[in-house]
Design brief:
mainly alpha; 3-stranded antiparallel β-sheet; 6 helices; MarR family transcriptional regulator; MarR/SlyA-like; WH-like_DNA-bd_sf; HTH_MarR-typ
């Protein structure tokens, strides 16, 4: 059975390339600025945010839960946690119920690091991403992202 590829039209192609370029440039800029201001990488920050989310009251997640939240491969989570553990931002704690499992706990130093970095990072996100957008553009972006995320969740 032969299938025909439905190529992107010109408008879709431009939108897709703009999205790819936006993601790459924004991530690179946020990472550079965050590291310069706080010494945290964007990956450090993402883990610290996950551990300080409101639905994580004890500031501790299983390694696999952290990976699921961030959509990272197991090896990436492990390597990043090891780097952060060496700097005292998190601690790895073995799970008594599952000998192969581990928890990642936020340390006081990790909490202090994200508390210090967050205001500047949020200001930069606002400046680079939201400034100049109308309320309707922000709402449209939210609807767009939600629609795509719902489709991705339904397909997994």
């Amino acid at each position: 059975m032969s299938t025909t590829t439905r190529w992107l039209d010109d408008e879709e192609h431009l939108a897709w390339r703009a999205w790819i370029d936006l993601n790459a440039q924004l991530s690179a800029r946020l990472n550079r600025e965050l590291q310069a201001a706080s010494g945290l990488s964007l990956s450090d920050y993402e883990i610290l945010v996950a551990l300080t989310d409101k639905d994580v009251p004890d500031r501790s997640l299983r390694m696999f839960e952290l990976g699921e939240r961030l959509q990272w491969e197991k090896s990436r989570v492990s390597k990043q946690v090891s780097r952060m553990e060496a700097r005292g931002l998190v601690e790895r704690r073995h799970c008594a119920d599952d000998r192969r499992g581990a928890f990642v706990d936020l340390t006081d130093a990790g909490l202090a690091a994200i508390s210090a970095a967050a205001p500047g990072h949020v200001a930069l996100v606002r400046e680079l991403f939201f400034e100049g957008l109308s309320g309707e553009q922000v709402r449209s972006l939210g609807r767009f992202a939600t629609t795509v995320l719902e489709r991705l969740a339904a397909e997994s």
